[in-house]
Design brief:
This protein has 341 residues and is of the alpha/beta class. The longest helix has 27 residues, at 312-338. The mean pLDDT is 95. The N and C termini lie far apart (51 Å). Helix 4 crosses helix 11 (312-338). 43% of the residues lie in helices and 18% in strands. Strand 4 (86-89), helix 4 (101-122) and strand 5 (128-131) form a beta-alpha-beta unit. The protein is built from eleven helices and 14 strands. The chain binds nicotinamide-adenine-dinucleotide and (2S)-2-hydroxypentanedioic acid. Residues 13-14, 16-19, 44-46, 49, 90-92, 94-95, 111, 132-134, 136, 158, 161, 190, 244-246, 249 line the site of nicotinamide-adenine-dinucleotide (NAD). Residues 95, 134, 161, 234-235, 237-238, 244-245 line the site of (2S)-2-hydroxypentanedioic acid. GO terms for molecular function: L-malate dehydrogenase (NAD+) activity. One of its GO terms (biological process) is malate metabolic process.
């Protein structure tokens, strides 16, 4: 008798693109929902990409994944989101060298408005949505504003890649294992105004005791070089690869969804961009803002870790990234209104 659970339906958009080329295998190997969780994949891309997507599905078949029950391939959001438990919205135009984020806002706002509406109309009411396509925070806001029948808590945006980048930089600088770095997190926008914060960071020593990152590293490094390196890491990848990050993005999407599905480990805090209801750290209501969070394994509730000390430097960084998110929101809404989308 099989020990497998009943299958779940997982929609992935931009399925013919480079992130999904890694991501789909992660899902089918059980790295996101567990080794006993079969999946039906709903793969959405635009009509001109369906040929390439067919190639991806030929490879999915050839992988012979035991957890892959079936897949649906479509260019129609209504079909892609029908009855899905999870939706991972990757499909969007990525930034290439020479493009600025404002170019992306316009290119992608209409996509996320339409997909938000399709999710509200067709997905399960319990659907969990992760927005990856940039500008991820503002795209998520547009999708949730449109998908008004779904709870705001159903929508998240990806800052787990920045979270992973920050941990890796700290581990490298201090010569410790990534797994021993804790309580470092990302505030705000997935952009170069994000605040990679190590002011509460700890390193677990061999004897189980904790050292503070700020006692091990110079504060000039933590507040200057480290922050800039993490803020501009995506741009560094684009400059070097002439393409935006893909393998690391797929890994981060997998980490985000697995953590949301199974809950955070005891004592662990992760970074997720969620709807700000105006009650945490003075962040304005009505933007999608990355906070330090824990996840309740039983309910899947994402809870902001409150009560952390915010010093003057951190406050100035929070203010800056919040201001950018408010500007992005206004620009996206104005664009949607002007273009009657
Ligand atoms: N939040 C993050 O941490 C993060 C990290 C890396 C990349 N990204 C973003 O993820 C997105 C995808 O990156 P990629 O490298 O896979 O890009 P890509 O160009 O390789 O793939 C994007 C895919 O999306 C498809 N697409 C475009 N419009 C669509 C629509 N309306 N519906 C469905 N599919 C659509 C394209 O046809 C393409 O197949 C980009 O916006 C990129 O900037 C975000
Ligand atoms: O467009 C960018 O600068 C970033 C692309 C991507 O979101 C990343 O973080 O790698």
């Amino acid at each position: 008798m099989s020990n497998l659970k009943p299958f779940i339906r997982v929609a992935v958009t931009g399925a013919a693109g480079q992130i999904c080329y890694s991501l789909l295998a992660n899902i089918c190997k059980g790295e996101m929902f567990g080794a006993d969780q079969p999946v039906v994949l709903h793969l959405l891309d635009i009509t001109p990409a369906l040929g390439a997507l067919r190639g991806v599905t030929l490879e999915l078949e050839d992988c012979s994944f035991p957890l892959l029950v079936d897949f649906v391939v479509t260019d129609k959001p209504a079909e892609a989101f029908a009855d899905v438990d999870v939706a991972i919205l990757v499909g969007a135009m990525p930034r290439r060298e020479g493009m600025v984020r404002a170019d992306l806002l316009k290119a992608n706002a209409g996509i996320f408005k339409a997909q938000g509406a399709a999710l509200a109309a067709h997905a399960k009411p319990s659907v969990r949505v992760l927005v990856v396509g940039n500008p991820a925070n503002t795209n998520a806001l547009i999708a949730l504003t449109t998908g008004s029948s779904l709870p705001k808590s159903a929508f998240t945006a990806l800052t787990f890649l920045d979270h992973n980048r920050l941990k890796a930089q700290v581990a490298c600088k201090l010569g410790v294992a990534v797994a021993d770095v804790r309580n470092t997190f990302i505030w705000g926008n997935h952009s170069k105004t994000q605040y990679p914060d190590v002011s509460h960071g700890t390193v677990t020593n061999a004897d189980g005791s904790l050292s503070r990152v700020m006692d091990l590293a110079e504060s000039a490094w933590a507040r200057d070089e480290l922050v800039t390196t993490v803020q501009t890491r995506g741009a560094a990848v684009i400059k070097a690869r002439k393409l935006s990050s893909a393998m690391s993005a797929a890994k981060a999407i997998t980490d985000h969804m697995r953590t949301w599905w199974f809950g955070t480990e005891p004592d662990d805090i992760v970074s997720m961009a969620i709807y700000s209801d105006g009650t945490h750290y003075g962040v304005a209501e009505g933007i999608i803002f990355s906070f330090p969070v824990t996840i309740d394994a039983a309910t899947g509730d994402i809870n902001v870790v409150d009560g952390l000390d915010i010093d003057a430097f951190s406050q100035s960084m929070l203010d800056k990234t919040q201001a950018e998110l408010i500007d992005e929101r206004e620009a996206a809404l104005a664009f949607l209104a002007e273009s009657n989308l």
